[in-house]
Amino acid sequence: MEKFAILARVEAKPGKENDVLEFLKSALPLAEGEPGTVRWYALQIGPSTFGIFDTFGTTDARDAHLNGEIAKALMANASELLAKEPVLEMVDLLAVK
């Protein structure tokens, strides 16, 4: 059962919006390969604002995701793609359908 989540917001540099969009889409297979990640959503909030929302059954699974391949790839490309540091919020889920 999902009890924990991460809400991440990223802001693309001007002219890098499509690159961020494609990066997020390309991360889906990595998320699918994480047994502790229950659900993984990549989303576009505005023209240059994107997000990731993922859910986990345990804090250990959430921590593993934070130290996983998606986070590593994002941070390796952050200076090229992102206007500022990603904003990460650790979330406790209250109700899930």
TrEMBL record:
Keywords attached to this entry: Monooxygenase, Oxidoreductase
Top-level lineage group: Bacteria
InterPro entries: ABM_dom (IPR007138), Dimeric_a/b-barrel (IPR011008)
UniProt-recorded Gene Ontology molecular function terms: monooxygenase activity
UniProt entry tagged with the keyword Nucleotidyltransferase: no
Domain annotation ABM: ranges: 4-75
Name of this chain's protein: Antibiotic biosynthesis monooxygenase
